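Lab notebook, bench 4. Continuing the backlog of folding jobs that were queued last week. Each job is logged with the same field layout so the records can be merged later without manual cleanup. Today's entry covers Ketoreductase domain-containing protein, a 250-residue chain. Filled in by technician R.K.

JOB TYPE: sequence-to-structure
TARGET: Ketoreductase domain-containing protein
LENGTH: 250
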Amino acid sequence: MPEHDLPTALVTGAAGGLGFSIARRLAERGDHVVVADLGEDASAARADELRSAGFSAEHRVLDVTDEEQVVAAIAEIDSRTPLSTVVNNAGVAFSSPLLETPMSRFDLLFSVNVRGTFLVMREAARAMTSRGAGSIVNICSTSSFTASTGPMIAYDASKGAAAMMTRAAGRELARTGVRVNGLAPGTMDTPLVRGLGSSDDELAQLAAARIPVGRLGGTDEVAEGAAWLSSPAASYVVGHILVIDGGWLA
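JOB STATUS: finished
OUTPUT FIELD FOLLOWS
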């Protein structure tokens, strides 16, 4: 089926572990997927991977912190293949105590996790409200609700902001036909989590000791949540943040 006949989904940060799992799940349900990421090679490779598996996909180099890029990219994509789903997945994380957190790291976290989320959500909403339909899913975190054991004060603050933007936008846009919701993954087995410095043994011990189900989450489990929240089955779900954490917050 030609791409313009398919519902179109844009996933930011889609070259990474969680982002690509979400992109693949949306492709599996029949969406044309725009694999957006900061790197040309990585995003192109992921789009090629989807096409090789028989799915409809394209890639887009996108810096979510750059307002001009975000405005132009979403307008151009939407003009060709109207967006039905946007998943705001691009994000960064650092483990850093309060007294050792330089402003450069604080600013980077807020630039990507808050400014980037806001810009993509705003422009997606601009496109979708003109048609009166669409779904935006923001990737938040269990750190949107409780402080990390990290310590990760700047990250926690950025994800708290992302959660509140999700709720506020969900309420504001509720009568436009555009739904805004969020996902709050717990400790997942992703390159981002492993990049925080934990060894396999440390991650296994963390899972056994603190996560009620006794294991790390899989990216495919979060992807299922994104697929559901952006589907007609969730048409009455607005401004909600779906927690997928193995019981961590229970």
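OBSERVATION: The chain has a mean pLDDT of 93.
SIGNED: R.K.
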